[in-house]
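Late entry, written up from scratch paper. The run itself happened at the end of the previous shift, but nothing got recorded in the book at the time, so transcribing now.
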Amino acid sequence: MSDKHFVSDAPFDPESIERMTADQEKFFLASRRKLIWWKLRRHKLAVCCGFILAFMYGSTLISEFIAPYNYQTRNTNNIYSPPQRIHFFHQGEFIGPFVYGNDYRLNMENLKREYTPNPDKPERIRFFCQGDSYKFWNLIDADFHFFCPAEDKTLFIFGTDRLGRDMFSRIVYGARISLLIGLGGVAVSLFLGLLFGGLAGYYGGWVDSVIQRVTEIIRSFPELPLWMALSAILPVTWSPLAVFFGITVILALLDWTGLARSVRSKLLALREEDYCTAARLMGAPPSRIIKKHLLPGFSSHIIASATLSIPGMILGETALSFLGLGLRPPITSWGVLLNEAQNINVVALYPWLILPVLPVMIIILAFNFFGDGLRDAADPYK
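Output as recorded:
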């Protein structure tokens, strides 16, 4: 074994020690919220999905402005029109975003409407323009849009449906309903899950027994048939807004049981910890002990459950509307749009009618990836 000592030849830099100490002090004095943000930033996929979710939910605030058409506008001369591709160069010259106009003919052999892009008819897309009139959030009359078709021309990015309505505009309008149902339903189910799970886990005894039996009864029913049965109870005379709230409540009342059981099991394990006993001996009420001492101990699990429940709510509304038992026209959601594509023959001839599936898939994947990153970041001390 060698007796040599290896010493660095680099000159001593006292400022590096000070910088290291300052960085350590910054970390140790940071708040829990800041530590969560620092850890979440390192999860690139979760941050990317967070921006996607923020963009999609932000778009619901200005759906009328983003959509080039009103969702009820019918273009009777363009029924089942295919999507128009956006181009930038015409005959080798850059002229900005535009689409080619369609030439229409009715095939008398199979009675199919055939649309052929005409390369001699470029139609430039207008931006920040006046178009179809709408009532912004049912409050303000306006007709200003982010982009519009050329004057007296058409612009169907995702094609049209059987009534000549623009699919892109209807998907944009439908996002508001489908996404808000997810948030509203999860808010109600999260409240119920924390309330009943907290009571069962903290008090135990007969309170725990009653809540557990109710939970088991609800969970014993098949989920989809129960949704269908409760949705069928909603009166057909209800307004679209009332049906919206009815579907939200139904989805929430059937989704809180899983979170309640998780909260109960965590509280049973944490309520005997020394810091909870100390808080109880100091006279802290149960509500404060649960809120300030117990729930933060497994907040990462609550966050993960909430983020994973939102896509479940969206899928539930989509499934019910697809089966004709959820939201109904004239209200528009992604499920209502997919309901119009049930006929396999129609989908085979006009495949763009199933395009509402794309935002559903994107939002579900984004919530799953974002929930994974947020779950890891919610416990920054690991």
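Residues 12 and 18 are 12 Å apart (CA to CA).
(Scratch paper discarded after transcription.)
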